[in-house]
Amino acid sequence: MWRYRNPVEISFGAGAFEQLGAAVRDRPYALVTYADAVPFDGLVSRASALAGTPAVTIRNVPPNPDFQSLTESCRALAAAAARPQLVVAIGGGSVLDAAKVLAASDGDFARVRAHLETGAARGLAPLPIVAVPTTAGTGSEVTCWATVWDKGARRKHSLAHDALYPERALIDPLLTLGTPRGVTVASGLDALSHALESLWNVNANPVSAALAVDAARTVLETLPALAADLASPDLRQRMMRAATLAGLAFSNTKTALAHSLSYHFTLHHGVPHGIACSFSLPLVMRSALGCDPGCDAALQAIFGNHLASAPARLGEFLARLGVSTRAEDHGIAAGEWRRLVDDALAGERGKNFLGRREALLDALLAAE
To answer: For the chain, which domains are there?
Structure first.
């Protein structure tokens, strides 16, 4: 028995951003985006022209939104001239995650913090969200959770609530034009990780697997070409489509071991999320092979019948994009790696991994 559900209404394609006014429907809204002048000043102006002047505009979102920045954002929401009935998020994963916190906060981050730290969801009644992603990778526009960081305690939290699925996702590949190579590659690898992590996952189902296979094949075919030709609208559209399909896949499965491993590298070593969650994919794949016939079949649809060589080929793919698969190159000593693997397996996302610890240790030995 299996189930698949995703309630987000998606508009995809060049020019989808122009539907913002119809999505807002004259409701007072809070606009959340980055402080960067280019291109976000222009997008703020376009949003105002399409949907009216926001009740409040919040532009203090940093990479990896944390307790401090989100507290300030929620105060700004509470000070809005008119009470927002909607949150519009225009940006990458950090903006989309911050928007979900704002939507759930009612202007008071303490409400969300209590939920994160105790799991008590009482009192959360999130506002609707219109998500407009400007990178191809996060998938947050079609999921019901957000990553929140407590940098003081060096902890990562996941805000999860069924009402945090965005009401609408306006996915316009043209908004990714101008994204620099580093962000493009990291975002694309995040999408690849979402796809693969939804396959070696105890929660996988036929729908999520079909979406993930399509997404992973597209990323492998498209991302190197896009990294060499950042101005191609066609390649941008292919990557945005792949990121959307990967998001729809892991919206039902959540992620698994590679993401669980990634949090240490982001918190302690500042490794960008897309790199932190993808450099270990060959290692994780090696340990997943042979553990589940359905997973093996899906991986064969991506990498071909010779699965034994697939992890090495995936490592070569990452190397061509400038990403090392050696944990030491991302900030840790060789002796730490085994402890981090055990910690990751014990984490919430690590428990989604369908592989066995013994197979992972064997893969570690093979990689050393």
So the answer is: 9-175 (3.40.50.1970), 181-367 (1.20.1090.10)
